[in-house]
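Throughout our pipeline, every protein is held as a single compact record rather than as scattered files. The record that follows is passed on verbatim for readers who wish to inspect the format.
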Amino acid sequence: MQISRGNLTDDRILRLLRYHFDKCHEVTPPGSAHVFDVSRLAAPEIDFWAAWDGETLLGVGAMKPLDQTHGEVKSMHTSEAARRRGVGSALLTHIVETSRARGLTRLSLETGSFGYFEPAVALYKAHGFEECLPFGDYKLDPNSVFLTRAI
């Protein structure tokens, strides 16, 4: 598996991001989906990566800086065909390491609080993330889980 900067003009990446965006809106009550669309991921301050096996896209992930020491994990998604192969762990480890190298000392994230998102919550907790109060512009929402960890 190779993880590299993601190209937001690559059709394979765009298809996976469209699926991720649509699925999040499909399974999440209105007003509670906080997934970034491609235009937000293309912002210059966002670090965006893709995981590949040769020419096969396995997954994507991003990091949005919140301030000089705190970042937010965004748009983590593993393709259906690549699930349970360690892609999410590899992407998350990459995000933690590159964020630390960038000088950040904390990463946080928001994800869903219900069944569809249980594997994501388990992944983040396995990597040392712990539940926390809303951060940044987020508000308390029964459909959200907020997680954070020092890096």
